[in-house]
Amino acid sequence: MKYPVYCLVLLLLSASLAGCASDDEVIDETARIDIENLESELVMITSDIETLQSANSQLNSENDALQAYLDNIVLDLTQVKVNITLQVNSLNHEISQNTNAISELQSENADLATQLTQLDSDQTEMYAQLSSQIADNDQQIADHGEVIAESHDHIQGLLVTVSSIQSILDSHQDALNATDSRLDILEGGVDLSLLANTDGRLILTCADVHFADFSNHDLSESFFYGADVRYSDFSYSDLSYSNFSFNPYCHGNTQGSEDQYYLTKTILLGSNFSHADLSNTDMRAVIAENGDFSYADFSYSDISDSLEAIYDNSDYMLYTSFHGANLTGADFSYADLTGADLTDAILDNAIWYWTTCPDGTNTGPGGWCT
Asked: Keyword set for this entry (predicted)?
């Protein structure tokens, strides 16, 4: 750390000057300027330390909030599993009852069929009655079979629900585990010096980090839920499989708020992502206006408006905006841009290959989005 060194230099210089100058002597101008510069730098260093401490406190608070959020999900998931278990047990009981009913009807039909074979040719009325009863039983068997099939489908749907909720839980647990590798915020940016030769994962949930330099780093699988990283530099960085999606909990419940548009979204306003690898990312509901995404790789990314139903009357809010962005040479192969705003964006030489356009159409192998 350079801070103790600066402090020591300042103290030594002050002591030295104090020892050399008598009451009648005047410190020369150069020494005075040196002292003032060191004092000024010490003030800046102290401010940086306070900023770092504040940032770490904020990150710890966010980590605690994420843990609390995860705990609530665990409780909800447990309750859902209990409810689903009860429903599955009830459905299995219903299946068992219908299966028994089918067995009884089939046994009855077998007896009726035996009786039919024993009737004389002149017992037509009895024959008709037995045949009608067999037909009625067959219909009941079919009805019970449909109930059993519906019950099985219902059970499968419930199991899929459990699996989906478990996936959400696993995703949040991954985000929580990854906080151990989060990076310190310092001097208005993020210190990436430790990532020079290693893989790193940014955890910037709800963070405000402006004008930071994230360029030329492997930051794959990072999390930017609701972060504001406007005017930052991500050029030539690997951000594949990262999540830039919105976070409605950064500023409390913002539903219906006039500021909902900005308070829930990840903000990349004016940032530099030129030549960045953004493949397989979740970029739904991102504000990327006036940013530089020239020659960025968006292949297989989700940039759609599929989050629009989360809030009532929010169909105009939860879409991604590239308004005025530079997308020259960007690769959108297999990307989904449904609902994205490309107004005034520069799309020269962009790559469109089986891309879903903002209007929902697909380019196929040779078309393009306008």
From this structure: Coiled coil
CATH of region 70-178, choose from 1.10.8, 3.30.110, 3.30.70, 1.10.287: 1.10.287
Nearest to residue 294, comparing CAs of 271, 274, 320? 274
- 142 within 8 A of 101, measured Cβ to Cβ: no
pLDDT band at 152 (very low <50, low <70, confident <90, very high): confident
- Chain-wide mean pLDDT for the chain? 76
**Is the pLDDT at 59 greater than 80, yes or no?**
no
Helix (H) or strand (E) holding 54: helix 29-118
Could you say which of 3.40.50, 1.10.3710, 2.160.20, 1.20.1640 is the CATH number of the domain covering 182-370? 2.160.20
- CA distances to 130, 336, 342, 346 from 356, rounded to whole Å, are 62, 5, 13, 18
Task: Report pLDDT digits (tens) over 208-225.
Answer: 888 888 888 888 988 887
CA distances from 130 to 40, 115, 254 (A): 107, 8, 70
Q: What residue spans define the domains of the chain?
A: 3-68, 70-178, 182-370
DSSP summary character for residue 179: G
Q: What is the pTM of this model?
A: 0.47
